[in-house]
Structure formats: C-alpha cells, structure tokens
Amino acid sequence: MSEHILGIEALDVHFGRGHTRTQALSGVSLRVRPGEAVGIIGESGAGKSTLARAVLGLAPVTGGSVHVVGRDVSRLSRRGRRAFGREGLVQYVFQDPLRSLDPDLTVRTSVAEPLQIRGDLVRAEIDEAVRRQFRDVELDESLLDRYPAQLSGGQRQRVAIARALVTGPRLLILDEPVSALDSANRVRILQLLARLRETTDVTLLFISHDLGSVAGVTDRTVVLYGGRLVEDGPTARVITAPEHPYTRLLVGSAPTLTSGAADRAHRARLRAELLAS
Amino acid sequence: MTIPGSSEGVTVTEDAVLDLQDVRIHNDLDDVELVHGVSLRLGRGRVVGIVGESGSGKSLTCRAVLGILPELIEVSGGSITLLGRDTAGLSPAEWTALRGASIGAVFQDPASYLNPSIPVGKQLSEVLRVRGGLRRKEARARAVALFEAVRLRDPERVYDRYVHELSGGMLQRVLIAIAISLEPEILIADEATTALDATVQAEILDLLAELTERLGLALVLVSHDLAVVAQLCDEVLVMRDGHVVEQGPTERILRAPREEYTRLLVAEHEQYGLERYLRTPAARELENV
After folding, report:
1. What is the spatial distance between Cα A22 and Cα A47, in angstroms, rounded to a whole number?
2. pLDDT band at B273 (very low <50, low <70, confident <90, very high)
3. Is the ipTM of this complex over 0.90?
4. What is the pLDDT of residue B116?
C-alpha cells in the first residue's frame, strides 16, 4: 500500500445509534497515487464530506480502513489524531474561507499558525515561508497584515489555500473551493490549482456536487451515490461515457454551453433508468 | 425573421408582455445610480436570460419589474411596461393586484417564502381563495392539480406536508405552483436553481421550459451561470456593475462573445467545465473554418 498516498478499503461509516442509526458510507474503496487529482462528486447526503472526514481521521468508522501515507487513521485515539493533525500531512480547504480563517487574526498569523503548531522552524524561517507561500498563491505581501474581513472572497480563498499549503502537505482536500466565488476568482483559483499540480507532487481531492466545476483540474473522477462509490475512472471517460445510471443523469443534467448536449426527453429517460436501477 | 430596428437578430413577432426601455435604478440614500440602463422586450412564451454576479444589478432589475424595490431605492429613469401598461404611476394597491395575477416570481431560497407552521397545500389554496375567488373545495382541487402540473409526485400527500418535510427541489416546485396559480403571463426566476443539486437543478429548468411551452408563460431567467441561462433562453443580457455589457441572441453570445467579460464567462466553461470534453458552439465554429 506504500505506493498509495491514500488507501481506503471497504469503508463503512455509521452515524447515530438504535433506530436513528444511519449508514453514511457503505463499502467504499479508493486508492489514490501521489500527485493524482481526484474529483469526488455526489449530491448532498451522498457521503462526500463524510469521506473527507474519514481521511482526516474524524469519522466514526465502523468497518474497513483508511490509510494515509501508509498509516491507519481510521481508529486513532484522541492523542494519535492530534499528533497526526500537527504533522500537517493532510490539509483541508472549505467552501467558505471564513470558516478556515480566524476573523480576529491577521492573515499573516493565520498562515503562520500551522507551522508554529508543527514547531520545527524558528521565527525568521516561518516568516520567510509565509511570504513565499503568499507569493505562490499570487497574493501581494501588502495584504499580509489585513484581517479576513478586509479581503475580497477570492483573496480570502487564496489565503485559505496558502494556509493549507504552508506545511507542504502530501494531500490537500478541497471542499467546494470555488462554489462561492464569482467567475473571475473561480478561474484564478482553478489556474492556481492547475499550476500547483505542475510544480509540486501534492495530491488533490476535489469535492463538489457539480461535475462541471472540477472537470478542468482533475484527471480522475469518482462518483458517490447514496453512500456508495458507483463510478471511478478518468475524468474524460466519466464525462463522455458514464457507466452508472446516476452518473449518466448527472452528466445529462449539467448545464453546459453546448446546445442540445442532452435534451429534456433524454433526461426524462435517464431519470426513469435511475429510478428503475 | 428579423425586424429592422429591433434588438439585434431577435425575432419580434408579437406584442411584448414586458418591455424595459433604458431602466435606471438609483439609491436615494447614498445618491448613487446602481443600474445604468437596461432595455429588453419579452414576447409571450419567450425566455430572456440575465447573467451576472452579485452586485451586477440583475436582481434589482427583477425587483423593479415586480415593484418590490427596497425603500429609498427607486427607478430613476427609463420605463417598464407590463402588459402594455406603464408601471411608473402605479399605486401600491395596483401593484398588489398586478403581482400574482400578471407577474409571478421565484427566488433562490424557497423555504423562506413559505410559512413553516401551515401545510404547503393550504398556503396555495389560500392564494386561490383570496386572490382567485375560489371556494374552499374548488381551491383544494385546483391546488392539487397545480402540484401535479409542477410534477410533484403524489400531490395529494404533498398538500398536507409542512416545509420541513420537503426537499429543496420539492419546495421550489411548490413555489412555482404558487407563482403560476393565478395564471400570470410572466414569471421571473431569480437564481431559482442555484442552491439545488445538479440533477434537481436540471429538473426545475426542464419544468420551467415545459411551462413556457405549455402555458405560453414568458420567462425571465436570472443566474450567475451563463450555462444555466443558455439552456433555455432565446436572448441573453450579460450584466456587470449595473451595466449591460453585452446583449443578444444566445447562440451568438456563446459562439462569438464580443466583450472581454463575456469571453471570460465562456472561457471558464471551455477550459474548466464539462465543455472541455464536449463540443461547444465556438469549437464547432473553429472546425468549420
């Protein structure tokens, strides 16, 4: 398993107990190699965020295992989980950057924080790393002493990405990172992620409800439906020749600029197929 | 057929149900103009799209058309003609009579437009009784028929459901049923599918397309996503910072955008969207050269 950065085997996750017990993930297996960019697609409730939480060692795993960089994170003790978090091997970027940035800290402090927690650099080294990271996400150093509220949504999301990258993580989980941004900022973030892939070997897990927003920066796409992984393949193949009825409907439902890519009657047939499956 | 002098390449074959001429919207508190001139003509059964980001003025334009601009924000120039009637001098009572009966609207967050403590069906039959003059029993039957018309499965059961018992897609169908219940000529859908899952978004867009065809409803479809608008619209307005940066037939806007901002909206899809793997009108155009 060592050649995989992420190895998920037959993962089950349940929430609640007794008659309210529900299964969020059922038998999900997924292996990701270093440097891959994988889109994780599904509707709300499909289990995307639960899968991300499992990779971070934060989900109540009831079966199967999750290995990150060769280490089993599915049944960590509280202490083990904290140590795992401190190393910064896996980082997470939320849809809303306000959630990953403390409003009372300057963005310089926020970006430096993961390095201070790891605690292996002196102050000058941390400062230099923060500046370098800021330049890498195309932010002007003059913004370093601002508070999150003094930045635009696009700038905030770049700060959140800088914070996530500063520890040099092996795996970066992006949860709907561009959904809340306007077009110009969406394109900038996607360009930034595409360049990140060329210049580093960081592995990306790109979570979205919408196939369209991740198609351009992933080389592989997996589809979750009802807590199960129903499709896994090269992004181009998943879009042009989807296999599972849900993926077929998802592709047929995605609004595109291609006129008549899928018409109403076609979608009605796809819905019927999914209901029958 | 193109009529000379009509807006570029768009066919005008009948009287417009909605006609905006150089509409300007002004904030009296800060004394700034927020929308700097919007013009559009919408014929019966036609669909016009407005694309823009938050702050572009697309929602303010919709609110002006509905007569529900916030306090101290007003139409300061141009004209809005609804079914042949200039809306400039309408009294609040006249607006109320017009809304619902002539023009309806649905917005992004359907739950916030419904009462959580009354079953959704009752809220619709209330509209039909008070505004439509139907009797209790007739109103209920009509409400169930409307729920069926918006493709809600098992409309009798949905009638007695509360807001918290229905999904976002079902609630948006309920709102559409209420919006069309008094048989208006015009429906405004402002980001009505934005918060929904991709497959549900397509269901609602398909329903709106079906209603325009079946009922001859004229639709103003507003979205931040050019692709959503491209699905349904004959004509598109691209707005930014209160200006209409580009306006024309959808096919032309997608194939040959003239303004840099519109090109960005198209390029975003072509580079990063599904279109990377599918053929777009622009790509087909290149192949034909």
Report:
1. 12
2. confident
3. no
4. 95
Alpha carbons A139 and A154: distance in angstroms, whole number? 10
Closest Cα in chain A, distance from residue B264 (Å): 7
For residue A33, CA distances in Å to A69, A171, A202 come to 10, 10, 10
Reported as a single tens digit per residue, the pLDDT across A156-192 is: 999 999 999 999 999 999 998 888 788 888 888 888 8
pLDDT tens-digit profile of B183-230?
999 999 999 998 888 899 999 999 999 999 999 999 999 999 999 998
A259 and B251 in contact by Cβ < 8 A? yes
Task: Please report the pLDDT score of residue B3 as a whole number.
Answer: 43
Give the phi and the psi of residue B277 in degrees, each rounded to 5.
-110, -5
CB B232 within 8 A of CB B222: no
- Residue partners of A243: CB distance under 8 A and separation at least 6: A231, A233
Across B139-167, average pLDDT: 95
Residue B93 and residue B95: Cα distance in Å, rounded?
Answer: 5
For residue B248, the model assigns a pLDDT of 96
Q: CA-to-CA distance for A112 and A116, rounded, in angstroms?
A: 6
What pLDDT, on the 0 to 100 scale, is given for residue B281? 54
Is CATH 3.40.50.300 correct for B11-102+188-289? yes
Q: Is A217 on the interface with B (CB under 8 A)?
A: yes
Task: Give start-end residues of each CATH 3.40.50.300 domain in chain B.
Answer: 11-102+188-289
Gap between the Cα atoms of A151 and A133, Å rounded: 17
- Considering only CB atoms, A254 lies closest to which of B54, B198, B251, namely B198
Q: What is the pLDDT, as a whole number, of residue B194?
A: 86
CB contact under 8 A, B202 and A236: no
For A257, the closest of B205, B264, B266 (CB atoms) is: B266
Cα–Cα dist A168/A174, whole Å:
15
Residues of chain A with Cβ-Cβ distance to B267 below 8 Å are 187
Most A CBs within 10 A among B167, B226, B272, hence the mutation to make, goes to B272
User: Residue B234 — φ and ψ, nearest 5°?
Assistant: -80, -35
Nearest-angstrom CA–CA distance, B176 and B199? 18
Least confident range of A40-49, A255-264, B276-285: B276-285
Residue with tokens 């809306």: B87
Query: Cβ of A216 and B276 within 8 Å?
Result: yes
Q: Distance from A78 to chain B by nearest Cα, in Å?
A: 35
Query: Does residue B287 surpass a pLDDT of 80?
Result: no
